Amino acid sequence: MSNKKDFIKKDRFKSLEIAASRVSENISEVKDEIMETVVSRFAPKDEKLSEELQDSSVVEIDISKLSSAPEQWNFYQPLPDDKMLELVESIKDKGLMHPLVVWEQKDSYMILSGHNRKKAVEMLYEETKDSKYKAVKCNLIKMNEINEDEAREIIIDTNWIQRQLSTVEKAKSISEKYIRLGRKKHLGDGVKTRDIIAESYGISGRMVQNYLSLNQLIEEMESLLRENHITIKSAVAISRLSKDKQKWLYENFTSKQLSSPDIKNIEAKMTKTQIEKLLNAEDEYVNVNIKVPANKKAELLEKVNQWLKELN
C-alpha cells in the first residue's frame, strides 16, 4: 500500500482513476493566479488536514540545496527578462508569497514548481547580499512519496495552469501527459486517455488530439509554428505527412502557401505532385459588373484594389 500523504493522493496529481476527480471546482480562479501555493491549489477540503499540511510540509531550504529538474522534464522556456524583473520586484516588495514545490533527493531538493522564483531570489541575493534571500519556503515532497512519472506530471500540470504556454510547449505537455497516463493502470469506465486530459485541462478532446499530432512535426516546421509563421490548423495538416514530405514542403513552399486554406486538404497518401498541384492552384477570376453612384467610383476602386492586394 502506498505511503503517500493524503494531499498527494487527493489533489490534482493523483492517479486519475476517475476522470471527474481531475478537475478542481475553482480551476478558473486557479488559472488567474500566477503563483498559487501547493496547499491552496491542491489540499483537500478538510480544513483541519489543510492546516496540518501547512504546518508540516512547508519548510525553508537553502537555495544552494535546490536543483533544477532535468531539461527533458522541464522543457518550458524561462520568463522573458521583463517578466523576470517584475517577479524580482514583487519578491523584493512583498517577499516570496508562494512556496516552491520540491522533491527530496539524496543530496538535494529537485524543483518541480518554482524555477523562475528560485532564479529571482538568487538575483536578489546577488544584488543585496541580504541573508533573507539565502533560503526560500518550499512545499516539500519526501523522496518516497511520489515516483518519477508523478514528479513529471506535477511539472506539466503546474506549468499548464500557471503559464501562458506557446503552442509548441502545449503540444509537448499534452504528449508527456499522454505518456504518463498511458503507464498507469486501467482507468475504468471506458474513458479515453485523451478525454481525461481534455477534462483536466479544460479543452476539447479534438484539441488534445491536435496537440498530439503537432509532435509529429519536423524541427523546421515546429520552428515555423513557434514563430507564428504558420497556423495551428496548417501545422496539424502538415503533421499528417511523412518527415520526408514535410522537409520537401519546407524547402519548396513559402509560409504563406503553407498557411493557405488549401493546406487543410492535404492527406498523408498524397504524392508530392498532388500536393504541389493543390498548393499552387491558381484562383479563378471572373468579371463583376455593378452600378455605383458616379461620385463613389474612385472610392470603390481604391477599396477593391486594396482588398486585392491583401489577398495576394
UniProtKB/TrEMBL annotation:
Gene Ontology CC annotation, any one: chromosome
Cited PANTHER family: CHROMOSOME-PARTITIONING PROTEIN PARB-RELATED
GO biological process: chromosome segregation
Keyword Ribonucleoprotein among record annotations: no
Keyword terms: Chromosome partition
Name of one Pfam family that matches: ParB_N
Protein name: Uncharacterized protein
Domain ParB/Spo0J HTH positions: 193-267
Boundaries of every ParB-like N-terminal domain copy: 57-129
Signal sequence annotation: none
InterPro entries found in the cross-reference section: Chromosome_partition/occlusion, HTH_ParB/Spo0J, ParB/Sulfiredoxin_sf, ParB_N
Transmembrane among keywords: no
